[in-house]
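Sequence in, structure out.
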Amino acid sequence: MVIFRRILLILGGLALVALATLVFICNINQGVASFWLGKFQLVFLSGDYFWPVIGVVVILLVLGIIGLFAAFLRKSGSPMIKVATNEGISVNISSTAVDSVVKKAAMDNPQVKDVKTRIYNSSEGVIICLYLTLPQEGNFPQITTAVHQSVEQTLKAMTGISVSEIKIVIANVANKLDKH
């Protein structure tokens, strides 16, 4: 989806720059206008609208350039989660680091075969979504309760981040032959 948005921004920016250039050239040179536009008569070519047309050209050009810049801007790194603020000192931790801590805490349970995570920042703390692969013969309520407690305690102990919610989804059930 991101690549599609970038392509649209590039094409839109180039189209606006090309349109601005064409309108500018047609406004300056009547011969070019008659060549490119053929039999079409445009009101702005009558000569009374020179400066308003230049204003429109500048607006189109600026919008095209903004579109091109937006297409090539990179997003900053992973979002930061504020851990603590004390006497002018602010401590942040990246969501990637929080993700690593959460995965490690979930995988500490030997019954968890695989874990995928999503972490969202909220005003009350972080919201953690865990997608677990558990063994077929496991006791799911017992395993998920243990994972929930482990993740919450480990995250609080290691980072000091408060957890507002932990959502656990059993995404897959592994067969005895699966060696995840």
